[in-house]
């Protein structure tokens, strides 16, 4: 019985409008159609273009991106209807016994008992995964029609009920449903990818090793990339068996995932080298070799600041590799920048560079803030042409110290004020860590401090971060 489908009419591309619909009809005998293009266009409320194919080979040739919907006769024979590369063979899936091969080593997957009658639909879904598909079948075969929808068609139509109004409505419904399915699939993939990235990046955040040091620790981290947990900034803190506390903070130039990965490599390398006993110029020279081997191009460099605090907590060694100097606040005194005149170049700039180690007196009770340039390069002022800079940061921190803020509260307030002065989110990565020593607190804990825990990103409160003395 011929399928009543619209007659084909060529519509010049210049005559089409934004709301036009293109329907591809796949049926082996289009003669005797009962619906005309004007009828279908009037029912749809817009111009409809029709393409007809007698078999799947013709359909594959006519299936272009401008096709909105496919109307497929489920009774279409497969003879001579190759569907193109990557599709099943003519007898694939028609036995009703499964799709597994004899030597697959696993039982065949169950298929529908009417899989043979849906072979043409399976082919079409394989060559047109992004197109809406309508299945056309006999009116008394509701089971086959329902099975077609379960296999992947957006809707089904009965021959006896087919008219311009029903067909136009079914086309629009199928198109919108397919769009919704694709959007939902893309959203699900995006969520799964984001969850995996978050788990990966969260696992790469540092876990400070400070047990037994008596020092307090707090940190804030904000990547410049949208919806990311890691940026090019990195930091770490460890205590070696001799009681020395080593801290570092660094910044890889750039903000992409490659820079974030390189930052993680440098942080892990720093921890391994520190625990192996390296310090100062020897450690930085080795890190530069790691950077040179791992970076994507010779233009990539990294700044770094390292501090090694003596077991008694009263003095420290400082090395700067093109990085801003830390901020030291002693009890009862305003915060000030540590000396930075003797610093060396950033890692990766000079092949045989040297990084001198400067001895710094910390005192009995103190707080030491290490940071990346994302904290000081934010804009300030109404015009946004001036940057905060180190002097502005020192003044900001001192004003917060006068208000009695300390520890994590001080870091939260500092990062929030920098964002406010910038007029919104900062485009650069920001990492800030705060180490502190309080003799009274150390005595209360019998010469040691409670166990330290990793600090959370700036979007959340730190886990186990402890309050410095100031």
Description:
By secondary structure, this protein is α+β, with helices and mostly antiparallel strands. It has a 5-stranded parallel beta sheet, with helices on both faces. A 5-stranded antiparallel beta sheet has the order 6-17-14-11-12. It has a 5-stranded antiparallel beta sheet with strand order 7-8-9-10-13, with helices on one face. β1, α1 and β2 form a beta-alpha-beta unit. α1 packs across α5 and α8 packs across α9.
Key structural traits:
single chain; 470 residues; alpha+beta; five-stranded parallel β-sheet; five-stranded antiparallel β-sheet; 20% strand; disordered N terminus; disordered C terminus
Topology record:
Blueprint: E1 21-26, H1 37-44, E2 48-53, H2 56-62, E3 69-73, H3 119-127, E4 132-137, H4 142-151, E5 155-158, H5 164-204, E6 215-222, E7 233-239, E8 245-252, H6 257-275, H7 280-294, E9 302-309, E10 315-321, E11 327-330, E12 336-337, E13 358-361, E14 366-371, E15 379-380, E16 386-387, H8 389-402, H9 407-422, E17 430-437, H10 439-444
Parallel strand pairs: 1-2, 1-3, 3-4, 4-5
Antiparallel strand pairs: 6-17, 7-8, 8-9, 9-10, 10-13, 11-12, 11-14, 14-17, 15-16
Helix pairs in contact: 1-5, 6-7, 8-9
């Amino acid at each position: 019985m011929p399928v009543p489908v619209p007659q084909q009419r060529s519509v010049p591309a210049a005559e089409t409008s934004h709301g036009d619909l293109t329907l591809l009809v796949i049926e082996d005998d289009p003669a005797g159609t009962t619906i005309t293009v004007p009828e279908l266009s009037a029912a749809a409320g817009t111009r409809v273009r029709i393409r007809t194919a007698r078999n799947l080979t013709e359909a594959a040739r006519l299936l272009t991106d401008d096709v909105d919907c496919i109307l497929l006769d489920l009774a279409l024979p497969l003879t001579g209807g190759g569907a193109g590369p990557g599709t099943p063979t003519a007898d694939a899936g028609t036995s009703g016994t499964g799709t597994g091969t004899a030597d697959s080593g696993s039982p065949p997957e169950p298929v529908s008992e009417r899989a043979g009658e849906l072979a043409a639909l399976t082919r079409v879904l394989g060559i047109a995964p992004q197109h809406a598909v309508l299945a056309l079948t006999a009116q008394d075969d509701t089971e086959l029609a329902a099975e077609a929808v379960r296999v992947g068609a957006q809707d089904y139509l009965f021959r006896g009920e087919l008219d311009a109004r029903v067909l136009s409505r079914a086309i629009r419904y199928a198109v919108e449903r397919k769009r919704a399915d694709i959007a939902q699939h893309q959203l699900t993939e995006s969520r799964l990818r984001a969850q995996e990235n978050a788990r990966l990046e969260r696992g790469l955040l540092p876990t400070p090793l400070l047990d037994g040091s008596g020092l307090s620790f707090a940190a804030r981290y904000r990547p410049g990339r949208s919806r990311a947990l890691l940026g090019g900034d990195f930091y770490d803190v460890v205590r070696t068996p001799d009681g020395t506390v080593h801290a570092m903070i660094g910044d890889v130039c750039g903000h992409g995932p490659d820079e974030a990965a390189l930052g993680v490599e440098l942080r892990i390398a720093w921890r391994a080298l520190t625990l192996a006993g390296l310090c100062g110029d020897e450690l930085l020279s080795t890190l530069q070799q790691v950077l040179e081997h791992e970076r994507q191009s010779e233009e990539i460099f990294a700044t770094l600041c390292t501090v090694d605090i003596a077991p008694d907590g009263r003095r420290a060694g400082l090395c700067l590799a093109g990085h801003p100097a830390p901020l030291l606040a002693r009890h009862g005194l305003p915060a000030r920048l540590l000396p930075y005149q003797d610093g060396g170049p950033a890692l990766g700039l000079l092949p045989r560079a040297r990084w001198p180690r400067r001895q710094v007196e910390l005192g009995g009770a103190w707080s030491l803030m290490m940071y990346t340039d994302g904290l000081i390069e934010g804009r300030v002022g109404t015009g946004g042409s001036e940057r905060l800079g180190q002097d502005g940061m020192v003044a900001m921190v001192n004003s917060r110290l006068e208000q009695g803020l300390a520890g994590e509260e001080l870091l939260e307030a500092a990062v929030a004020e920098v964002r406010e002065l910038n007029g919104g989110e900062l485009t650069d990565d920001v990492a800030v860590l705060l180490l502190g020593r309080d003799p009274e607190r150390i005595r209360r804990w019998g010469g040691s401090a409670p166990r330290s825990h990793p600090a959370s990103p700036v979007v959340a409160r730190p886990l186990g971060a402890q309050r410095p003395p100031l």
